[in-house]
Amino acid sequence: MKKWERYHTIWGMLFLGWVVSYIDRTATGPIVTWMIEHKISFFSDVPNPHEFGGLIGSLFFAGFMLNQFPGGNLGDKFGYRPIIILSILWAAVATFFTGLSGGLVMFVLFRVLLGLGEGILYSNDRSYIAFNTPPEKMGLGMGVVITGLSIGLTLATIGTPLLLEAFVPLMGNDAWRVPFLFMGFITLIVAVLMFKFMKPDKKLIQSADPNSPGVKEFYGKSLYHLSIYSLVFLVIIMAIYFTSTKLGLSSIVIAFILASLAPILIIYLYVTKKSEVHPLIMNKNLFFLYLSFLPILWHLWLYGFWSTAIVQEFGGGALVAAAAVASFNAVAGVIGFPLGGKISDLLADRPNGRRNVLALLTFLLAVSIFVFAWYIQTENSSPIITSIILFISGLFFFALQPVSHALNAELAPEGKQGGAFGMLNLIAEIGAVLSPVVSGYLRDSTGSWGAPLILDGVLISISCLFVLAISSKAVQSAQPKNISSSEANM
């Protein structure tokens, strides 16, 4: 039996962080679907409920998007671990208070705050894994940890409708509050566990560079700078929301305005922090990788936000039954994430190794999406066939992500992994901002989920082309920027 190493403990704690993080953000989709179905609260008199519900998701992702690069940059400066723990703690508070919100404005406010807090997790989580994990296990580690995404997505998809139905007799139309209150408490417990069990190893600290972000721990400075960034972004997002609604702009126009904040922020960062940003966006291969990930997050949040509604609409049945079928897509990540990471590790030393794996998985994902779109447009509604299609599609989708993450870690400049992952998600989150509301708009306009799915397939096909544009020479010459295997095993 292999010896349990420190990096295994880190994998386990980060896995839990991804589970609760994804439950906190994914629960909004089933809750909005339930509100639309029952015409409750904010959805009691909305002419285009799916478009409006998608806007709530887009507002969350606007906050999530804007804190991607600042979060990665803060991790490089003040330590990955403090940022990770602050992210989970922040999410706990924002999720709990969402359940206490008394109206639409406060609901939106706390969803944006949740996005701002969770936006700093990804880049630091990926960087912390790369720092602590032996190079030959990096892809596997990233796959194992982010399996928590799949678990969280599955639990939120199935568990949220069950909680809603269980508390309707007791709380009536206020039952939507329960999932937020429950998960806020659970997330807080996970934050405490991560603080306790992710403490740096003394031997590792002694052998590593004390200025390395893998061992630095500045909680006060991290919280201060994170709060400043978040306050500025919160004011900007809420100002756009209030001004746009007062002017009578549609939800989809508001979403595109929010998405435009990403390129504006990139330009601002390039002008003010050129030495830090230039190596990240002027590297052709990194930039193609960033662009390839934008459709990936579009797809994630078409399914993550609307999958239950899609299945329920063409398959019929109760919300809980539809959620059970939709969950087959998310649960595929339990296999897909570690499998994709392991395969890419095995082929990493070959010419175009990781790149070819990523391109193939992306192509297969596109095919599976078109198959699903064709199936529902032919008015078939077998829950068994639907579950199989969603599961196979999920395998390809989740398997490609750790491959992309490992490739990004290899291509990132020395000492800028946090920034590289932050830039990757900053650009990619444009897809997450637009996907819920654009997909909801197309559903309301056409009366079917077929059009959103076809658009999704087209975007994933474009993603495959961006992956193929990555240079094999750059990938072959890139080296993982983490500690040695012997140091990691201390």
Offer a concise description of the structure.
By secondary structure, this protein is mainly α. The chain is built from 23 helices and no strands.
In words, what does this structure look like?
With about 500 residues, the protein is mainly α. About 80% of the residues lie in helices and about 0% in strands. It is built from 23 helices and no strands. It has helices at about 5-25, 30-40, 50-65, 70-80, 80-100, 105-120, 120-130, 140-170, 175-195, 200-205, 220-245, 250-260, 260-270, 275-280, 285-315, 320-330, 335-345, 355-375, 385-410, 415-445, 450-470, 470-475, 485-490. The longest helix has about 35 residues, at about 140-170. The protein starts with 5 loop residues before the first helix and ends with a helix. Mean pLDDT is about 85; it is low at about 475-490.
Secondary-structure topology with pairs:
Layout: H1 6-26, H2 28-38, H3 49-66, H4 68-78, H5 80-100, H6 104-118, H7 121-132, H8 138-171, H9 177-197, H10 202-207, H11 219-246, H12 251-259, H13 261-272, H14 274-281, H15 284-315, H16 319-331, H17 333-347, H18 353-377, H19 383-411, H20 417-446, H21 450-468, H22 472-477, H23 485-488
Helix pairs in contact: 1-5, 1-8, 1-9, 2-3, 2-8, 2-15, 3-6, 3-11, 3-12, 3-20, 4-5, 4-7, 4-11, 4-20, 5-6, 5-7, 5-9, 6-11, 7-20, 8-16, 8-17, 8-19, 11-12, 12-20, 13-14, 15-16, 15-19, 15-20, 15-21, 16-19, 17-18, 17-19, 18-19, 18-21, 20-21
